[in-house]
Design goal:
Helix content: 25-40%
Distance between the termini: 36 Å
Shape: globular
Strand order of the largest sheet: 3-7-1-16-13-14-15
Number of helices: 12
CATH topology of the domain at 150-190 and 286-423: Aldehyde Oxidoreductase, domain 4
CATH class of the domain at 150-190 and 286-423: Alpha Beta
Structural class: alpha+beta
Oligomer: single chain
CATH architecture of the domain at 150-190 and 286-423: 2-Layer Sandwich
Number of strands: 21
């Protein structure tokens, strides 16, 4: 029986409006009386704020409001861990953090006003490598979180020091192995680069109600964050998702919405903030950089026996979605291979980089890079074809993953063989 939809060409329902320019993105929208926002972003990686004077900016003709930490009803936010100020308060933790936000009649006036704000910094020692951040004596980034969500610079997953996965007896597996290979890899930060940067409009609807319109992927994550920042009941905050001009995971994150909401409520008028590419690159999140150490034990015929993995993730200045992502890295970082003895442990560290968060792959692409390089290296040491080595060790129906999950409907062998056929691997 033929399929009615699968394998058939179907036009996208929004294709015509997209190519003819009829779609209205956030930056295309306008409301009567709308103001425009521009930020003052920190110029220091790690510093105490010893002076913040917005007087000159407030006096500039055309400026209607300037918001800082003192204007936030609740200045502490965060998707999972309450570690991120809406506006930098006593100190900044990365270069690009929002210190103040200006609302004015035009973007040009708002930009001029932002440049008039006086801010004085007392520089503090900074740390950028997560392995160095975990060392004794490293500069502490979140003093106020100690014992709650961090220990030193180590972010605590649900109160534990690390993510830990144990399946079988990895030391026994290494004793039974004929060959043991160990290698360390690093995966770097990567920047989402959608054509459309972050953009939102905050529209007050009375003294205790607000509507936020913008290019968020997760309105039901962001609604509580905005409500918390304004100390409003959830039903007084409405979040609408406009058409999104690319996201790739980055627009899951809480970014400019709480800042803009506070500014709009202070101004009493709708305010739009559409980040420039430069602002977006300085302020918003990157993919999580991770260091991986893989130790793999196997028999001389190429049968995998044991794997021990260690991962160190760089969450940057704030945790965002890193804990979810690094948990996933821990649980499935051994890939689609049948390995009876497994151990994995993951550390997450604060550094003075911009925050890390969601990005395509969401915790799988980083360990996959390391694991598949490891598989190639081991195959070379064994003198085996890399494809043959993989096919020998792929999970089959009934095998258990490192989490204990029983695999069903595994199509890895068929997939690899098809790729080999289409790519001319044998040639």
């Amino acid at each position: 029986m033929g399929l009615t939809e699968v394998g058939k060409r179907r036009p996208r329902i929004d294709a015509h409006d997209q190519v003819t320019g009829k779609v209205q993105y956030t930056n295309d929208l306008y409301f009567p009386g709308m103001l425009y926002a521009k930020p003052l972003l920190s110029t220091e990686h790690h510093a105490r704020i010893v002076e913040l004077d917005t007087t000159a900016a407030e006096r500039l003709p055309g400026v209607r409001a300037v918001a800082t930490a003192k204007d936030a009803p609740d200045n502490i936010n965060g998707l999972i861990i309450p570690d991120q100020p809406v506006y930098a308060d006593d100190k900044v933790r990365y270069r690009g953090e929002v210190v103040a936000l200006v609302a004015a009649e035009t973007e040009e006036i708002a930009q001029e006003a932002a440049e008039l704000i006086k801010v004085g910094y007392e520089p503090l020692p900074a740390v950028f490598d997560p392995r160095e951040a975990l060392e004794p004596g490293a500069p502490i980034i979140h003093e106020e979180g100690q014992g709650h969500w961090c220990k030193g610079n180590q972010v605590l997953p649900h109160g534990h020091e690390t993510f830990l996965l144990v399946h079988g007896d990895v030391e026994k597996g290494f004793r039974e192995s004929d060959l043991i290979v160990e290698q360390t890899f690093g995966t770097s930060a990567q920047r989402c680069a959608p054509i459309e940067p972050h953009a939102f409009i905050a529209k007050p609807e009375g003294p205790d109600r607000i509507t936020i319109i913008g290019n968020t992927q997760m309105p039901f994550w962001h609604q509580p964050a905005i409500a918390k920042a304004l100390r409003l009941p959830l039903n007084r905050v409405r979040v609408l998702t406009a058409p999104i001009g690319g996201a790739f995971g980055q627009k899951n994150n809480i970014t400019i919405e709480p800042n803009l909401a506070i500014l709009a409520m202070k101004a009493g008028r709708p305010v739009k903030w559409a980040l420039t590419t430069g602002e977006d690159f300085r302020y918003s999140s990157t993919k999580i950089p991770v260091y991986h150490t893989y130790k793999m034990g196997l028999k001389s015929d190429g049968t995998l026996v044991a794997i021990d993995r260690k991962h160190v993730g760089n969450t940057g200045a704030y945790a965002s979605t890193t804990m979810i992502t690094m948990g996933k890295c821990t649980f499935i970082g051994s890939g689609p291979y049948r390995i009876p003895h497994q151990r994995a442990e993951t550390w997450v560290a604060y550094t003075n980089k911009c925050q890390s968060a969601a990005f395509r792959g969401f915790g799988m692409s980083q360990p996959t890079f390391a694991l598949e390089l490891m598989m190639d290296m081991v195959a070379e040491k064994l003198g085996m074809d890399p494809l043959e080595f993989r096919l020998k060790n792929t999970m089959k129906d009934g095998d258990r993953a490192g989490t204990g999950q029983v695999m069903r409907a595994v199509g890895m062998d068929a997939c690899l063989k098809k790729v080999a056929e289409l790519s001319g691997w044998g040639e």
